[in-house]
Structures are given as C-alpha cells and as structure tokens.
Amino acid sequence: MCHTSMQRLACLAVWGAGALFTAAASAQEVYKIGLVSPLSGANARYGAFANKGANLAAKEINAAGGVMGKKIEFVTGDSQCVPAEGVSATKRMISFDKLPIIIGDICSSVTLAMQPLAEEAGVLLVNAASSNPTITYKAGVGGFKWTFRNYPTDEGRAAIVLEHAVKSRGLKNFAVLSVDSDYGRGAINFTKKYLPRYPEAKILSEDYYKESETDFRPVLSKIKNSGAQAIIMYGQADTTPIVARQMLETGLAGKVVLVGNGEFNTAKTIAAAPSVMNGSIEAAAWLPEWTSARSQKFVEDYKKAYAGEMPNNHAYTHWETTHLVAAAIKSANSLKAEDVRNALAKLKYDSAMGSVTFDDHNQAVLPMVLLEVADGKPVIKSAIAAKVDYPKQ
Amino acid sequence: MAITLDTPHAPSPRLPAVRWGAAGTALVALALAPLVLDSYYLHALIIAMIFLLPAHGLNLILGYTGMLSLAQGVFFGLGAYASALLSMHFGTPFVVNLLASAAIAALIALPLGIPALRLRTTSFVMCTLGFVVIAQMVAKNWTDLTRGDMGLSGIARPKIGFGHAAIAISQIPQYFYLILAVALLATIAFVALIRSPAGRCMVAIRDNETLAESLGIPTWSYKLIVFMLSAAFAGLGGSLYAHYETVVSPLVFQMYYSNTILIIVLGGGVGRVPGAIVGSFLFVAVTEALRVAPELRMIIYGFVLLVLVFMFPQGIAPLLERATEWLSRLGGKVDAKAEKQA
Amino acid sequence: MANFIFEQIINGVITGSMYALVAAGMTMIFGVLRAINFAHGEYYMLGTFAAWLVISKLEVPYVVAIVLGVAIAALIAAIIGRLVMQRLVGSPFQAGVLATIGISLILQNAVILAFGGGYKVFEGGWIEPIEFFGIGMAQQRIVLIVAAIAIFAGLEWMVRKTRMGKAIRAVSQNIECCQVNGIDVESVVRRTFLLGTALAALSGILTAPVNVSVYGGMGESITLKTFAVIVMGGMGNVRGTLLAGMLLGVVESLVSGLIGLQYRDSVGFIALLLMLMLRPHGLFSQKARF
C-alpha cells in the first residue's frame, strides 16, 4: 500500500500519529520508575534476583489499582557493576526517559556515582542493596537530600553478632573470612570497632575472598590450624554454600561455626552442609522462613511467578522497596518526585519484617533479627532495630 | 602488522582541504552541541571524549609502535586516583591535578615499561594484563591511601581560574566545554607527535624494527618514551574521569576499561590519526543506542565486535577516509586536469 | 607446621589440576592459532551450565551429565570454531583478541538471557569427604586429579602417536609450511579448538560439585587465571601447563595460608611478571617464541 513516495508519506504520518496517540494514551496510564542493576557480567547473578523482586512488586501494585490510578512500569538499566556504565544508564533515565524515581544499584561504587546525578536533577534515588556506609553518611543532612537507603547498615549487624557470639555462645577465638568488597571489609571494620568491648575475644586471622572465589581449602586449612572456634563471615549468598561444603570436606563441621551474615538461613544453604551450618549465628534483615503472613506470601508468590525459584535477599529488598515507593506516593498523594521524597522522609512503613522509618540521613531504621541455625532450621533469638552511629563531620 | 595507506589513484589536490573542512565542521558541531542537545547526549559525548584520551595513548603504542598494550586501564585508573587524592588531600586546583595525573602515570610507566618492553608481542600483552590485576590488588589493599573498596567519593568539581574569578564547573554544558578543550589539546598534541620526525621513527619501528635499528633509530628509547607518553594520555583521561564522576574505586581497574579502550582503537582504526576519535564516538554511540534493548544489549555488542573484526579489520576510519576522498573528487574535471599534468 | 605446609601443598595440587586442565586447552588453541582465547572461561561455564541443566531438568545421574555437558559445550564450540575461529588463521593478533572478547560477551549474555542471571546451585557429584593422609577432601577432588593426570597422559600420547597430534604440532610450528605440505590447517584449527574447549568444559563439570554456584558470568575469572598459567608454562607448551598449573596452585595455597586469601590472585600475576622479566619463554620451554 505504501509504494509511491506520496503514499509513503501518508503511511508514515498515519503510523506516526498512531504511535504518538498510543504513547500519549498509555502515558496517561503508566507511571515509569527506573531500575538500575547489574544485568550482565559476573554481578548479573545478583541483579537478576533484584529485578525479579521489583517486577513482582510492580505486578502486585498494579493488580491493586496502581499508584494514583496509573500502572507502575519499570525502565531497566544495566550497570554491569561498572560505575561509568551505571552513570550512563542513570543519565539516560533522568534526561531521556525523564523518570522521577530511580531504584538502584546493588554495587556501592555505582550508587555513589549515581548520588550526585540524582541530586542535581531532583530525582528520587532509593537504594535497596548497597552496603557502603558512605552512601548514608552523605545522604539526608549529610548532603544528598534526594538519596534514600532502604537497606540495613552493617554497623548494627556487626555489633549484635559479636555480642551474641561472645556473650551468649562463649566464643572467644575468631577467624575472619569475609568477601573482599566494601560490604565484607566494612562489616569487619565495624566488628573491629566493637571488639575492644570484649577483652576475651581475639581475631586470629583475617582473610578476604574475591567475589568469584570458589576455592577455600587453603584458608580453611589455616583456620583449622589456628584453633579458631568461629569464622566471622560477611559474605555473599551464593558463596556460603561453597564455604560450607568445603568446611565439611576439610573436617571443620561441628568444630567451627559461621558467624555474621550471608544467607546462612536459607534452606538451600543449610542443605549444602547441615552439619556445618548448625550452630551458625546470623543477623539478617530478612529470611525466607520469616513467619509473618506478608513475608510468606511474598515467598509463595515469587516461587509461583518464577518457576519455583526461591527468592533471595536482593529479591526481597527490591520487592519491599518498590512497595515502599508506592506507599510513599500514596502518602504524598502526588506523583511528583519532590512530594514523594518529602513523604518518604516522614513515612512509617509496615514492611514484612516490621515497622520502618527513615532517620535524618535518609537511612531506613530497619528491624533485623538475630538467628541461630539449629537442627537444620533458623531459630530467631532476638530482634533489633539497627541504629547508625554517624561520624562527626 | 602492516598497515598500508595506499590509494589506487593519485590523491586529489583538494583532499587535504576536504579533510580539514570535515574535521572543522565536526569540531564546530561539537562546540554547538550543548545548545541543541539535551544533557543525556552531552553526557554520552563527554564519556566519548574522556575515553578518547587513553585511546590516543593506545593508538600511539599500538598503531605507531606495534605493541598491543592492555595496560591503558592501569594508567587511566592511576590518573583517576592521583587526581582524586591530590584534590582530596591537598585541595589542588583542577589544572594541577590534570597535569600531575599525566606526569604520575608517565613516571609509573617508566619502571613498568623497562622490563615489559623487552618482551615479544604476546608476552607483552600478558605482562600488561598482569599490571592491571596487580593495580587492582594494590588499590583494594592499600587502604590507608586509597580507602580500598570504600572508594574515594565526593571528589571536588573542577574550578578554572584564580580566586574570585574562578569558574566552578558543575553543570553538564560546562563540563562539556572543559573536556572538549582538554580532548582537543590532547588530539593536537597527538597529531603533532605523529607528524613529527619522531612520529616517522615510530612508524619505522612498527613496520620493521630491525631495519629501523639498523638505520640508527634508538628503538629501545623510542618504545619506552612512547609507553610513557601513552600512559600520560591515559592519566589525563583518568583525571577527567575522576572529576566528572566524582567517585573512584578499585573498580576503575576492571577489565572493562582496558577492553573498552582496545575496542575503541581497533574499531576506529589503528595507526590512523582519526582512528581513536572515530572509535570513541562510535563506541559510545553504539553502547548507548543499544540501551533501548537492555536484555539483548551485550549480545548485540558482541556481534558488533565480530562484524568489526571480519568486515572492517582496519577499523571504520578507512571508510571515512574513502568518503572524504570521494568528496574531494566531486569536481571531476579538476582531477582529470591534475592527473594529466602529473 | 610441616603438616600445615603439607596440607597446603595438597590443596595446591587439587586446585592446580583444575588450572592445568583448563590451561591445556587454551595453550593448545594458542599453539595452532596464535590467538589468546579471551572466551575460554565461557566454555568452562557452558559445560557447567549444560551439566546443571540436564541434571535439574532431565534428572540424569552425574556421570551422564558429564558426558552430555561436554557434548553440548563441544557442539556450541564446533559452531563457533567453524564460523569464527578458523577465520582467524593468519590474521593479526588483535583480531583474535577482539573476536574472542565478542564471543565471550555473546556466550555469557546468551546464557543469562536463556536461563536468567541468578545463580543456580549445582546438585550432583561425589561430595562425600574422605581422608587422604589425614587431610579431608571430597571424593570429587580425587576424581579431578585422576582425570587431569589421565587427560594429560592422553594428550601426550595423542601428540606423539596420532596423526592429528602430529598435525597439531606441525601447525604450531609453522603454518605456511603446513599449507604447502597439504595439511588442512583449518581442519586442524577447528579440531584443536574443539578439543581445547571440551577440556575447559570438562574441568568445569568436574569442579562444579564442590564449587556449587553456577551463573552466566562465572567464566571471567577463570579466563584471567588461565592466562597466568599458560604464560608460566610457556605458551603452546602443553606439558608446561601441567607443571605450571600445579605450581601456581601450590604457591597460591601457601600464600593464602600464610599471608592472606586476598592476595591469592596477585600471586599468579606477580609470578607471571617475575617470570616474564627473568625467563620470558616460560618455566619449562627452551626458548622464547612469543
């Protein structure tokens, strides 16, 4: 039909107008939010979970009517855990897609690079997974008013884990084996900060593993030799089963326990080596076994939506953060970034783990649980709300 | 690797004019860009110009001395850290940081280059790769200096000028002009270097090192100096990166940066003056355009690389060169007369 | 202390077998093609992924998964070999670098696209620990060491006695002469590529039970480590990679045990750099060819 140049022009005009019309029509019904995460490269293994959690939440919100009558739609960006890429993806979302709210990233260095962009553009940046405390030290009254962080700070974690390990379990000799990233190193720095409170406790060795490490035998041999009773491990979800299995094969099962954080409590991790995981201590912001109705429903819905795959921590935090954003929009009764931001700062949000508020550094004061693994199951020992000790500036 | 620039016909006398005209037009277009384009596109152009600098360095060492170095990422990262640390600890102004980064990168290239340059091609590549891995380890573990994985954030924005007259650079258009200026100066320096007698010596070394040596060219010194110069270029780029992104972490030593710089140079055209320029703008254009399809993006990018290797082994710059040649022939009669006279 | 050192040496031999197996493949490919395969780790990943897939979807036993995993990875490698790798014969070094970077991006992200980016847990394999001179190790480790020795012995035999092996040696030495002599260089390149990547895939499947986590990007760090091994062993020198792999494994274990795990990767590259400065042709080669 569109053969001659005149006909082609007409076709183009009709097609163009149609596209514009549908775009305009759907623009009225869709509210786009940005989602930046590593979707390629080695860190894609975490980004994938994050996006799935967020998408599940968006589906739930849309099924319940959406936000202010509009459906949430995510515009995804791939940061590859490379700050330059994350910045480009964010820039595109801000300038090109004109998104008012962005959730991202997982890698702290990317988030740190995104903060000034969001600040300048007046775009709400809600972080759901980065652990570098600098993000929070610099947010809110620290300077970046548009950054919010809905992820626990490791300071509180480090403190209660150490307390429980020394006081309740009588552990004295510790070996450190954490992931070599801002998360692992930061948590150990915090642990060392609190260590002087327990004069009987000592750190016998300090090792950090690279993020794609699979061979822990040398360091486990060292730990076996050192007489350590517990390994302080702040690590990654998929590395814990590897360490557990290798602890089993080197004969550390039942002799050395894991203490810290790294999804010690999930069924798959425990199943990897139950005799090793029994007795481990973890401070978790969430666990799949958590008994609240909302959390259980999240786990069930996630499994149903994604072919039986179990959600992990990143999936949960992004799911929760999406709901958090929706709640802030509702509370603000507006879709504008400024209003949502103000509402978020004052929001008291009922998460699946308990009540969440934000402190003056826009850091979520999150309820956490301290658990031990016993008989192949996580057992909650206590609950705490982690508070941050901000450095004097 | 022989790169021939032969053309079947005698080049039209108007060719240089056409080439300068094309370059000039591109420059004017770039200069006017902030008036027309919105900040996302400007950001993409800025990234292209930041990567242009280490790409010039790699083009220098690969295209004009024939050594494939994957260490540009090291000097880029070194420049970034140097700039960041100087600015954070001493509050030095931007221009000082910029020049210091180049100098520091070149200085560190010296002890690295001396042993490395004795190696043959493949070993040299592996050696430079080793530098990248070790640089990342140092950045992660020397926490007193680099703060390790915590990274250096909140790097001060550049200020140009003195005292009260200083212009603080914080908006994208301002950054654009600053980086355009630096990139332009670096490119002029690069071209001057290539066109100089020293540049000719470098080409001689690339084409046949033994012969060059027999002609009395001190090949060893040349290679070392070229290595240091290419590091200086990369250091400049790193400094710009640090002041633009305001965050530097050991992630700057990932293979991503070395690979990107390599792709820019090979895709653009090795051993050609516009090679790095074409490559960096092309690379940014492709990777940003592909963001429309986030799931397929890296797969398509991989295919683009394969297409580059098999269909444009000399890069894209030769196509542009042929285009300018064709343009310069458009006034056909002039050519025929010139050829008859020749 | 002596016991501790002994244990670390055994740890090193275990890791080293894996390094050696993967490196053998890469060095052979380098030998015939003069190209560094930046995508080598991706074949390791493909083998592991394929094995994971057949175990979790078809529920076959581990032994069958080894065969199927290698077969699937080899099939993909065969396609790539024919379409890409054989065309790299005679092209400059950087063409190989760019092409294999492209392949690695395609493979990694295709797997992420097909199976999702999230990490999978590898089930199967012989993970029950046994004792060996007082050192506990999973049975899988013994399998890996035995397999490595067997394969290297097999490679040695192949290179000395079979026609294909001799062709590989010839092509490694001088491609133009081979073409003159009527050896089908492209076929040798394809078959060497297939063999090399199959070795990588096999080594991935054999270590998956103890390495547990399977994800699309897992090949990157393998490739990098393997570079160090092939340079140390002498590029193109298969016997050298066995020794270099073992040596690297042992040194890494000692450094991890005595100094810290965070310095582990740099050991390989510091050793690589030292070696390039002092003995550029590799620890076990006679003269520098590359």
Number of H/I helices of chain C = 11
* Largest beta-sheet details of chain B: 2 strands, antiparallel
Label the CATH architecture of chain C. Orthogonal Bundle
Termini Cα gap of chain C: 41 Å
From the structure provided, what is the oligomeric state, counting identical versus distinct chains?
heterotrimer
- Average pLDDT of chain B, rounded to a whole number, is 88
Series of H and E elements of chain C: HHHHEEEHHHHEHHH
The CATH class label of chain C is Mainly Alpha
Task: Indicate the CATH class of chain B.
Answer: Mainly Alpha
The proportion of residues forming helix of chain C, as a percent range, comes to over 70%
H-E string of chain B: HHHHHHEEEHHHHEHHHHH
- The value of Rg of chain B in angstroms is 21 Å
What does this structure look like?
The complex is a heterotrimer of chains A (393), B (342) and C (290). Chain A has helices at residues 5-29, 44-63, 83-96, 108-121, 133-137, 154-168, 182-194, 217-226, 240-249, 267-272, 274-277, 293-305, 313-332, 337-346; strands spanning 30-37, 71-78, 101-104, 124-127, 147-149, 173-179, 202-209, 230-234, 257-261, 281-284, 349-351, 354-358, 364-365, 367-374, 377-385. Chain A has 393 residues and is α/β, with parallel strands linked by helices. In chain A, the strands form 3 sheets. A 7-stranded mixed sheet of chain A has the order 7-6-8-9-10-14-15, with helices on both faces. A 5-stranded parallel sheet of chain A has the order 2-1-3-4-5, sandwiched between helices. In chain A, strand 4 (124-127), helix 5 (133-137) and strand 5 (147-149) form a beta-alpha-beta unit. In chain A, helix 2 packs parallel to helix 13 (313-332). Chain A is globular and about 80 Å long. Chain B has one domain (15-159, 166-337): ABC transporter involved in vitamin B12 uptake, BtuC, CATH 1.10.3470. Chain B is 73% helix and 2% strand. Chain B is built from 15 helices and 4 strands. In chain B, the strands form 2 sheets. Chain B has a two-stranded antiparallel sheet. Chain B has a two-stranded antiparallel ribbon with strand order 2-3. In chain B, 54% of the residues are buried. Chain C has a two-stranded antiparallel sheet. Chain C has a two-stranded antiparallel ribbon with strand order 2-3. In chain C, a hairpin with a 2-residue loop joins strand 2 and strand 3. In chain C, helix 1 (2-33) crosses helix 6 and helix 9 (219-233) runs parallel beside helix 11. Chain C is globular. The model of chain C has no long low-confidence stretch (mean pLDDT 90). Chains in contact: A-B, A-C, B-C. Chains A and C meet through helix 2, strand 7, helix 8 and helix 9 of A and helix 1, helix 4, strand 3, helix 8 and helix 10 of C.
